Amino acid sequence: MSEVFRLRLDVAYVGSEFHGWQIQPDARTVQGEMRHHLTRLLGRDAIPVAAGRTDAGVHARGQVAHLTVNTADEFERVARALPGMMPPDIGIHGVRRVSPAFNARFSATARRYSYRIRLVRDIFQPHGWIVLRALDRPAMDRGAEAFLGRHDFASFCKAKSLKEDHNLCEVAHCVFDWRDDSAIFHVRANRFLHHMVRNMVGTLVEIGLGERAKDDIPRALAARSRSASGKLAPPQGLFLEEVYYPEQVMDPDFVPADVPVIPEGDSP
């Protein structure tokens, strides 16, 4: 008799040659590549579900996906063979059995992103937004600090993706790590809206360039309108770094008695 297993896959990828995570017709995507190789490996259609649907050109060091397999043999085959089947721009860094209640998207309690800004041209550092003008670093630091806490981020979301009743996000960490020739913006929150990090970075860079008032972030947040924030930062600087989960859903033996198992799919 077969036993169904829910697996957690830890995935990294360079997003430059992908049209995002999610399968699209006639376009190369991370989910599409993984589906192709998993289907070959298991002899049936097998689609991994991710914690977040990264956009075209966005990278991930800490993407998480889940997959259901039907037998212990399938679990062992995925763990043993899948990492070696991936193309050079996708890495599988872990395959483990988890609770049947685990869902890479809906079980997540927080996510962490980074965004890289390059202040000089360097052909050996291709992933980042090149900004060759001087930036007011203290002003950008104060702007980043203003994002901390629980806010309505409607002004920092792609307009077509807004939810009428729920655009609140709680930001626990938001800071720049400055270097002589670069900066890394780090942000962690319980949830992110579509394009939220890239809109945050674009607005902060405008503050750094003197194109926007130094104390503009509270005003932009309060406006709850995309027109109140800055331009969208390009995708090549954005990395999904880590996804956080409750410990109990990492336990293969954890089956909640009063909570239905979270569905396989990733539709809201």
Report on this model:
This protein has 268 residues and is α+β, with helices and mostly antiparallel strands. It folds into two domains: 109 residues, Alpha-Beta Plaits (2-Layer Sandwich), CATH 3.30.70.580; 105 residues, Alpha-Beta Plaits, CATH 3.30.70.660. 22% of the residues lie in helices and 27% in strands. The protein contains five helices and ten strands, in the order E-H-E-E-H-E-E-E-H-E-E-E-H-H-E. Strands 1, 2, 3, 4, 5, 6, 7, 8, 9 and 10 form a ten-stranded mixed beta sheet that branches. Helix 1 packs across helix 2 and helix 3 runs antiparallel to helix 4. It starts with a strand and ends in a 24-residue tail after the last strand. The mean pLDDT is 94.
In short:
This protein is of the alpha+beta class.
List the helices and strands and how they pair.
Elements: E1 5-13, H1 30-42, E2 49-50, E3 59-69, H2 72-85, E4 90-98, E5 110-118, E6 129-130, H3 137-146, E7 149-152, E8 168-178, E9 182-189, H4 196-208, H5 216-223, E10 238-244
Parallel strand pairs: 3-10, 5-6
Antiparallel strand pairs: 1-3, 1-4, 2-3, 5-9, 5-10, 7-8, 8-9
Helix pairs in contact: 1-2, 3-4
Descriptive labels:
globular, 5 helices, alpha+beta, single chain, 10 strands, Alpha-Beta Plaits, ten-stranded mixed beta sheet, 2 domains, 268 residues
**CATH architectural designation of the largest domain:** 2-Layer Sandwich
Tell me the CATH superfamily of the largest domain: Pseudouridine synthase I, catalytic domain, N-terminal subdomain
CATH topology of the largest domain: Alpha-Beta Plaits
- Rg (CA only): 20 Å
Estimate what percentage of residues fall within beta strands. Answer: 25-35%
Order of helices and strands: EHEEHEEEHEEEHHE
Principal-axes geometry comes out as globular
